[in-house]
Automatic annotation (TrEMBL):
This is Phosphatase PAP2 family protein. Pfam families: PAP2 (PF01569). GO terms for cellular component: plasma membrane. It is a multi-pass membrane protein. Keywords: Cell membrane, Hydrolase, Membrane, Transmembrane, Transmembrane helix. Residues 64-171 form the Phosphatidic acid phosphatase type 2/haloperoxidase domain.
Amino acid sequence: MNRIVTWITTSDQYAFQLINQKLKCKLFDLILPRITHLGGATCTISFLLFIIMLSQSMLRLIAIKSLLSLALSHLIVHIIKKIYCRERPYVKLPDIQLGTHPLKDYSFPSGHTTAVFSIAIVFNLYSSPLSIILLPVAFLVGFSRMYLGLHYPTDCIIGAILGTISSIMVYYIPIFG
């Protein structure tokens, strides 16, 4: 068991450093600091409320379920962050390229990645045309969190899984038809 944990930790750090240091380029430096905010609370909640207020169709139901998925996933993220207390990579590793202001909360799991996946997957489950845009954005947000030095790959992978699980749970809740 100890070997598995060591292998995961080593692989996680290697993948993080590859993304954070070796993939640096001006295009990513320009785009990813903006993309990363698409998984933040302001953007995700505003996007869903906008759709809820302006839509009278199935799209409104999808947005409501996405909002429920977002709330459920963030409750889980908050609990895990309190239990696990994983320090961010820029605290633990040397020579990190930090592309934004340091954060004070813990790293595991990635809240931005969880949030954007909790929305994108609901749209995908309903076969909404918006999922064509939302799924690539979700992957880009997860990638941006590592590129900007804020999260390890496992933080983002588990965030994506949590967002997906909350989406599936909410998808099967029979509300509004």
